[in-house]
């Protein structure tokens, strides 16, 4: 009897095993085949994004005040899981003196064009450094994949004239870096800016505002000034404004004014701040200053906000800072409330100094705060349990979490301050009208309500 060969069966078994192995490998690998992230059949998880991405901005020839254009870079820095710091660095020798250069992030590529998606801080053409900054509540991963470009314009009066342009995100190959060595528990201090009347065409009756110093690294501080306009400068001024507003840190105090603009030779840093695009609905501008937070918040100086480069003599908002601020910068605290976490389940109030009736008792107690009172909340829960105050729509008004600013943190009346141990603020009537609860920004079960007692009712400091 002839013996049947086993080859066909063996070959079939080998094919089945090979096919099964291929299916298993395909199921385990959803990230593409290439080490460079190339896609040979779908890539579900994008490659890691660096903490710093820079893109070139190309000088644009034009018929305006800067015919050769201005070259530079725009850099995106990781400032938290959902926050990006965007800095502009233009060739200061090529910027146009006498004007400021508005800058925006636009949708689509340069060749396709698109609407403004994000405002950047305008660059003061008279500044010796040509740099500005802007914190935006989007992750760096978002911008790495964003279909957009950056335009830098000649001036608010000539927005149709570009002095620099460059693709970003999905439309360009950026240069990556290691990012900023951010302080783990950064401090923040806000100083109010008071009204100053002028004969100018922008805010002749003056306008209030604030300037905030936010610690970034051991040697870098983000300085932001904003105006209390409830919208853009153009809207608040009652018509179109064709000039950008500029700000400076000056030497000495308002009482000793006029003092010169802080400079690298005398002070170790440049006091030129960014400019405000008059159509920017946030009415603010930022710049990273190469000086430590401690040096700036102890500096002998003041801040002036001027109508424009061409009309710098018109100062419509100003205020002392640092060593000169006194009670204007870090107002004496009326009431100190110390809170702590009960695991990740609840808050508890462990002490209240200089008032009674604040603590409603128990876990997640109702807090009764009095208007026109300055509170210091010492948070013994630490950085694991950041403290936030929200409105009824769960939007943050004050937020100890550095990744997201509360909407009242720049309010000059609230005069918000933040450090590694807690937050300090004045409980204004506007803040009282908006607040609904306080909570841990990480753990939703740590939440309690806030109710208000008016200072006119005889409550507040010393008892109710």
Describe the structure.
The protein has 464 residues and is mainly β. It folds into three domains: 52-177, Immunoglobulin-like; 188-326, Immunoglobulin-like; 335-457, Immunoglobulin-like, CATH 2.60.40. It contains six helices and 29 strands. The strands form four sheets. Strands 12, 13, 14, 15, 16, 17, 18, 19, 20, 21, 23, 26 and 27 form a 13-stranded mixed β-sheet that branches.
Unreliable residue runs: 1-46, 458-464
General shape: globular
The N- and C-terminal alpha carbons lie at a distance of 111 Å
Give the tally of structural domains: 3
CATH topology of the largest domain: Immunoglobulin-like
- Class of the largest domain, according to the CATH hierarchy? Mainly Beta
Q: What proportion of the residues is helical, as a percent range?
A: under 10%
* Estimated structural class: mainly beta
Gist of the model:
This protein has helices at 7-28, 140-144, 233-236, 264-267, 293-297, 429-434; strands at 52-59, 72-80, 83-90, 100-101, 103-107, 116-119, 123-124, 131-136, 147-155, 158-169, 175-177, 188-195, 209-215, 221-227, 245-251, 272-276, 284-289, 300-306, 315-322, 335-342, 346-353, 367-370, 373-379, 387-390, 396-399, 417-419, 422-427, 437-440, 447-453. It is mainly beta and 464 residues long.
Please specify the SSE layout and strand pairing.
Elements: H1 7-28, E1 52-59, E2 72-80, E3 83-90, E4 100-101, E5 103-107, E6 116-119, E7 123-124, E8 131-136, H2 140-144, E9 147-155, E10 158-169, E11 175-177, E12 188-195, E13 209-215, E14 221-227, H3 233-236, E15 245-251, H4 264-267, E16 272-276, E17 284-289, H5 293-297, E18 300-306, E19 315-322, E20 335-342, E21 346-353, E22 367-370, E23 373-379, E24 387-390, E25 396-399, E26 417-419, E27 422-427, H6 429-434, E28 437-440, E29 447-453
Parallel strand pairs: 20-23, 22-29
Antiparallel strand pairs: 1-2, 1-10, 1-11, 2-3, 3-8, 4-7, 5-6, 5-9, 9-10, 12-13, 12-19, 12-26, 13-14, 14-17, 15-16, 15-18, 18-19, 20-21, 23-27, 24-25, 24-28, 26-27, 28-29
């Amino acid at each position: 009897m002839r013996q049947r060969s086993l080859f066909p069966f063996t070959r079939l078994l080998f094919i089945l095993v090979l096919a099964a192995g291929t299916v298993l490998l395909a199921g385990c690998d959803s990230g593409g085949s290439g080490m460079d992230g190339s896609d040979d059949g779908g890539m579900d998880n994008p490659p890691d994004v660096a903490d710093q991405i820079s893109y070139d901005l190309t000088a644009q020839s034009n018929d305006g005040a800067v015919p050769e254009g201005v070259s530079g870079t725009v850099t995106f820095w990781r400032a938290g899981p959902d926050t990006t710091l965007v800095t502009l660095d233009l060739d200061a020798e090529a910027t146009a003196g006498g004007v400021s250069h508005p800058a925006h992030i636009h949708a689509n590529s340069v060749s396709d064009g698109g609407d403004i998606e994000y405002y950047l801080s305008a660059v003061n053409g008279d500044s010796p450094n040509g740099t500005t900054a802007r914190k935006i509540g989007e992750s760096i991963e978002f911008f790495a994949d964003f279909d957009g470009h950056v335009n830098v314009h000649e001036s608010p009066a000539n927005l149709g004239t570009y002095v620099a342009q460059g693709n970003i995100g999905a439309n360009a190959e950026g240069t990556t870096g290691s990012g900023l060595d951010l302080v783990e528990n950064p401090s923040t201090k806000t100083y109010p800016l008071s009204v100053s009347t002028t004969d100018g065409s922008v805010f002749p009756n003056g306008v209030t505002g604030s300037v905030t110093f936010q610690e970034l690294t051991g040697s870098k501080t983000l300085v932001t000034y904003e105006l209390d306009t409830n919208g853009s400068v153009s809207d608040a001024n009652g018509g179109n404004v064709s000039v950008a507003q500029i700000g400076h840190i000056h030497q000495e105090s308002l009482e000793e004014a006029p003092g010169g603009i802080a400079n690298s030779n005398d002070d170790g840093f440049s006091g030129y701040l960014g400019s405000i695009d008059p159509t920017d609905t946030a009415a603010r501008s930022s710049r990273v200053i190469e000086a430590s937070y401690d040096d700036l918040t102890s500096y002998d100086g003041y801040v002036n906000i001027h109508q424009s480069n061409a009309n710098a003599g018109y100062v419509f908002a100003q205020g002392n800072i640092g060593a000169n601020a006194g009670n204007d910068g870090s107002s004496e605290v009326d009431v100190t409330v110390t809170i702590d976490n009960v695991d990740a389940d609840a808050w508890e109030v462990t002490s209240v100094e200089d008032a009674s009736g604040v603590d409603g008792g128990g876990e997640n107690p109702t807090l009764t705060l009095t208007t026109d009172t300055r509170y210091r909340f010492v948070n013994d829960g630490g950085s694991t349990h950041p403290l936030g105050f929200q409105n009824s729509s769960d939007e943050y008004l004050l937020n100890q979490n550095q990744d997201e600013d509360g909407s009242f943190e720049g309010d000059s009346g609230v005069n918000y301050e933040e450090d590694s141990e807690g937050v300090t603020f004045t409980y204004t009537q506007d803040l009282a009208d908006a607040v609904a609860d306080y909570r841990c920004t990480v753990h939703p079960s740590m939440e309690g309500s806030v109710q208000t007692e008016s200072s006119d009712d005889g409550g507040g400091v010393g008892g109710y």
